[in-house]
Amino acid sequence: MTSSYAAALLIFLGLFLIGGVISLARQGLPKVLIGLLGVCAALAITAGVLRWK
User: Fold this and answer.
1) Model pTM score
2) pLDDT for 2-40, tens place per residue?
3) Distance CA 23, CA 1 (A)
4) Fewest CB atoms within 10 A around its CB: which of 4, 21, 28, 36?
5) How far apart, in whole angstroms, are the C-alpha atoms of residue 37 and residue 53?
6) Can you give the residue ranges of every domain in the chain?
Protein backbone atom coordinates (compact mmCIF):
# COMPACT_ATOMS: atom_id res chain seq x y z
CA MET A 1 0.00 0.00 0.00
CA THR A 2 2.40 2.67 1.17
CA SER A 3 5.87 2.62 2.55
CA SER A 4 5.22 5.65 4.71
CA TYR A 5 3.49 4.82 7.95
CA ALA A 6 3.59 8.48 8.97
CA ALA A 7 1.45 9.42 5.97
CA ALA A 8 -1.10 6.73 6.75
CA LEU A 9 -1.16 7.80 10.39
CA LEU A 10 -1.75 11.45 9.50
CA ILE A 11 -4.58 10.56 7.13
CA PHE A 12 -6.15 8.33 9.77
CA LEU A 13 -5.84 11.14 12.32
CA GLY A 14 -7.53 13.56 9.92
CA LEU A 15 -10.41 11.17 9.32
CA PHE A 16 -10.75 10.63 13.07
CA LEU A 17 -10.93 14.38 13.60
CA ILE A 18 -13.59 14.70 10.89
CA GLY A 19 -15.65 12.22 12.86
CA GLY A 20 -15.19 14.46 15.88
CA VAL A 21 -16.37 17.46 13.89
CA ILE A 22 -19.53 15.64 12.89
CA SER A 23 -20.14 14.51 16.46
CA LEU A 24 -19.63 17.97 17.93
CA ALA A 25 -21.88 19.52 15.30
CA ARG A 26 -24.68 17.10 16.18
CA GLN A 27 -24.31 17.98 19.86
CA GLY A 28 -24.65 21.67 19.09
CA LEU A 29 -21.34 22.81 20.56
CA PRO A 30 -19.87 26.24 19.68
CA LYS A 31 -19.02 26.72 16.02
CA VAL A 32 -15.56 28.08 16.90
CA LEU A 33 -14.60 24.73 18.41
CA ILE A 34 -16.02 22.85 15.43
CA GLY A 35 -14.18 25.13 13.02
CA LEU A 36 -10.89 24.74 14.85
CA LEU A 37 -11.20 20.96 14.84
CA GLY A 38 -12.11 21.05 11.14
CA VAL A 39 -9.00 23.08 10.33
CA CYS A 40 -6.86 20.61 12.27
CA ALA A 41 -8.44 17.73 10.35
CA ALA A 42 -7.77 19.42 7.02
CA LEU A 43 -4.14 20.08 7.97
CA ALA A 44 -3.60 16.48 9.06
CA ILE A 45 -5.07 15.07 5.84
CA THR A 46 -3.09 17.54 3.72
CA ALA A 47 0.15 16.65 5.50
CA GLY A 48 -0.57 12.93 5.02
CA VAL A 49 -1.24 13.34 1.31
CA LEU A 50 1.90 15.42 0.83
CA ARG A 51 4.01 12.80 2.64
CA TRP A 52 2.46 9.96 0.62
CA LYS A 53 5.05 10.10 -2.16
Assistant:
1) 0.86
2) 568 999 999 999 999 999 999 999 999 999 999 999 999
3) 30
4) 28
5) 26
6) 5-51
